Amino acid sequence: MADLPEIAPAIETVALDVTDADAVRGAIADAGRVDILFNCAGWVHNGTILDCSEEDWARSLDQNVTSCYFTIRAALPQMIDRGSGSIINVSSVVSSISGVPNRAAYGAGKAALIGLTKAVARDVIRSGVRVNALCPGTTASPSLDERIAALDDPEQARRDFIARQPMGRLGEPDEMAAAAVYFASDESAFTTGQTLIVDGGQTI
């Protein structure tokens, strides 16, 4: 895999509640020029629809899709005015692409995010702004580790996550980052409203 550009040292990180519309608007205003908007906040509810309380349903939609509504609305006007920009929404193969057990609320939110991606891409298609969705499969991450640790049998749960991957391993964060860099770069200048599946063959 090609080395990714060393951009992290130049980025100032701030804590932000992306479900707070006012906070999002303030953060985008403070950021100044936004060339790339990468929406990657999310939350995974574990359970079927019968296990999902109204509060969990609302939280899932708030974090997985409404947060992107807030960030896109805040950043898009300046991109349109400038005639350029790339918006990358992290959806999932657990969405309108595929279903897996115990992900009713999560899958609904991520499917809605794909719909939002395509709708915004179509609305701004002549503006110079591109909007795409990255759809990972199961990826090694601190979030996954926390969810596995919370289950009754963490060792078996990890084996189960790996077993559903045809390649026999989880995705790596660098692999998802490389896909995001593609969407952010001029190499994808003719690509908008698309979903890029990076799932190790999970949905073949």
From TrEMBL:
<keyword id="KW-0520">NAD</keyword>
<dbReference type="InterPro" id="IPR051122">
    <property type="entry name" value="SDR_DHRS6-like"/>
</dbReference>
<keyword id="KW-0560">Oxidoreductase</keyword>
<dbReference type="InterPro" id="IPR020904">
    <property type="entry name" value="Sc_DH/Rdtase_CS"/>
</dbReference>
<comment type="similarity">
    <text>Belongs to the short-chain dehydrogenases/reductases (SDR) family.</text>
</comment>
<protein>
    <submittedName>
        <fullName>2-keto-3-deoxy-L-fuconate dehydrogenase</fullName>
        <ecNumber>1.1.1.-</ecNumber>
    </submittedName>
</protein>
<dbReference type="Pfam" id="PF13561">
    <property type="entry name" value="adh_short_C2"/>
</dbReference>
<dbReference type="GO" id="GO:0016491">
    <property type="term" value="F:oxidoreductase activity"/>
</dbReference>
<dbReference type="InterPro" id="IPR036291">
    <property type="entry name" value="NAD(P)-bd_dom_sf"/>
</dbReference>
<dbReference type="InterPro" id="IPR002347">
    <property type="entry name" value="SDR_fam"/>
</dbReference>
